[in-house]
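Hi team,

Filling in the usual template for the complex we talked about on Friday. All components are listed, including any nucleic acid strands or ligand strings, so the model treats them as one assembly.

SUBMITTER: L.P.
PURPOSE: interface mapping
COMPONENTS: three
RESIDUES: 850
SEQUENCES:
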Amino acid sequence: MSEETLLTVDSIDVFYGGFQALREVSLEVRTGEIVALVGANGAGKSTLLNAVSGLIQPAKGTIRYRGEDIAGKDPSRVVSLGISHVPQGRRLFPDMSVLDNLTLGSYNRNARPRMAESLRTVYDLFPLLERRKEQPAKTLSGGEQQMLALGRGLMSNPRLMLLDEMSLGLAPIIIGKVYRALREIRRRGITVLFVEQSVRRSLQEADRAYIIEAGRVVLEGKVGDLREEGEIKKAYFGI
Amino acid sequence: MASEVLLDLANTVLMGILLGGLYALIALGLSLVFGVMKMINVAHGDLVLFGTYFAYGVMTCLGIDPVISLIAGVPLMFFLGFAIQRYLMSRAFGRSMEAPLLIAFGISLMLQNLQQILWTPMSKGLTTSYALDSFEAGGIHLPLAYLLDFAAAAVVMLLLGQFLSRTYLGKAITGAAQDRTAAQLMGINTQRVYAFAFAISMVTAAFAGVFLGLTFPFTPQSGISFLIIAFGVVIVGGLGSMVGTFLGGMLLGVAQTLGGYFLGSTSQMLVVYFLVLVVLAVRPQGLFGR
Amino acid sequence: MDVKVKMMGKWTALIIFLLLLAALPLLGLPQAWVLYFLLFFVYLAMANMWNLLCGYSGLISLCQPAFVGIAGYTMVILVWIGVPFHAAIVAGGVVAGAFAVLISIPVFRLRGIYFAIGTLVVPEALRILFLLWRPVGGKLAGGGAGYMLRGMKGVTVTHYYLIAWVVGIGSLFLMRYILRSKLGLGLAAIRDNDRSAASSGLNVFRLKLYSFVIAAFVTGIAGAIFYLYEGYIEPGGAFSIQWTMIPILATVIGGISTESGPIIGTVVVVFLDFLLARYAGFSMLIQGAILVGIMLLAPQGFTEIARQIKTRWSRPKTTGV
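RESULT (copied from the run log):
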């Protein structure tokens, strides 16, 4: 596994109007890793992902992807560079079919020539999507929608996937399925940065983790080391 | 005689239904722009009228039939729409709620004045040989223009529907309308998509303009009534539903013809306006809307 | 001590200026000048009212022509049947205000752009209505629905100029008063977010209604004065979109949501009117182009530009010899 750094976030500040959502946040993701962003509601995790994918521009600091500064770039640009963001709440196109949702995922010009190939990959990973391909997205169950969202994210031919709160609103069994899919995705060579509220789940699935509280990174490190931390034990038993 | 009155009434209703098709066609562009960009283009009526005057110009200067002139009118309106969105409206979006409205308002005024200068404030019509014909069968007496309008409306709406649901770009536009953020994350450049949507809305306006001109006389001031009709159809029929737009159009069309029948032709628009205000007050999401 | 004298000086100068303006017709200036100033005061009142609605209450109203037309027709009808013109003007405003209350019922259920178009429908409908309705007088030669002003013997320009002056300057004081009152605070809260304002206990509907009715009343009076001067009213002009256009243009040019904006804007608009008098056929084209231009380049209007220039001048020079 290569140690090349794929994504570097360097001391970013992000504001929503007058409210400061992120303070001097720094983060690193290396190729092939699965990294978790953990924290309570409103801690700023989603904001961080939004800053990386270009939905919001940091007021200060840099975000480098494969050496290139992407802070403030248009999301459609960022996608074509190889970053795929599966947003919180899935945000599928509710009235469009599963197939349409998937094919739109390949819209960016780097992914489009590979659409058929990507589709095959997604169907192999999630056979249920192929079975339901003509159904409108809104008629799928929560878990199925999450699979669709993941599949759609894969269609853009990414190197790095940003996954925001995949387990939201899902039953534990389904969550298990989703994270199994995540491991499959890593196996295919895609690096993952995911956001989770559950500390336990994060430590289970990730290689490294960052704990965020009130817009700051308060703890970071390899999952094995973090498990020993006193703070984590408190959170581990507390949550 | 009762049967005569009944026949008259039936005729009136039928005319209203056909007229409704035309109204739906006018509303189509407005509905598309609103669905995709969440913006009501107050210049829509004047842009439709621009299409009408363009056809008029081509007809009077080159002697070409208005429907044929669409061959030039459609690309012209497409590029005009693309440019307006790309270079004018897009700049206004971030600013405030009033900004796009005021810009559209400004465009509306410029168009009105332009048309007044070029063509005088006198009432004009796209008078072709067939525009005045009527179709008669079993006591039913329908102007040919109305039938053509309905047919044109049906065809355009069908084509647009197919475009939006079957082509890749159409799906991208539909997606951007349903969830802008998600569309951006798919790599869809919303700026370009918006420009395309506006351009397509102008294409439908070109069609609407020509068929309006064939059916009714128009002055440079007619843009406002077109806007109100379009808005009324969208409100009554509900947003986001092409079927709803069609039905809304027909409802307004019938309201107008019945109003004209009972209250005289000067008052017929009053019935329409009244209906729009009532629906706005009672059920703003439209009769068929979500 | 010095500052106080300066302030006194400023105020006296202002008062003298205003008095001069009031006495304008008596100064022996050409009639045309007087009429431009009259127009200025009429437009100023309307601009202030539109600013009140859109800039301060968040109501994008395209309803002004309705108020102008209704007040104008009320005034003409009353004068026709012998009511003295001062009373007729006030009555015009009152009727316009009452009308505002009436249509607020359907129209206030709408927000933002929906409200705008809802208010667009009203003057259009009225225009058609007044084409059909002839409450007094017989048929006009050649048909149509216009009225000439009757019963205006002994009334000179000076009379209605003075009224215009009162209304125009009065509108400025009215704005100042409103903005500092409870109503003004409530409006500021609504403008920014009327949902959260409602949840903090403000009666949003009532505040908007007050704003709407006041604007209707003043706009109506200004319109009535205009038609007093015109001497002739007909539906196409009375309910024309120009009555929306001019206040919008004035407010936007001068700076929306500012107190001095409408003044500056109205000066510009009237000046433009004067410059382009020969090109009357192009006036809407130019107005429209200016509106688009300003919204794109200087959406905050002149007051903002002026402020920026001022800050740039007063900034201390950077070091470097």
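MY TAKE: The interface with chain B takes residues 54, 60, 105-107, 109-110, 112-114, 116-118, 120-122, 124-125, 128-129, 131-132, 241, 245, 248, 252, 256, 281-285, 287-292, 295-296, 299 of chain C (CB under 8 Å). The first strand of chain C starts at residue 147 and ends at 148.

Thanks, L.
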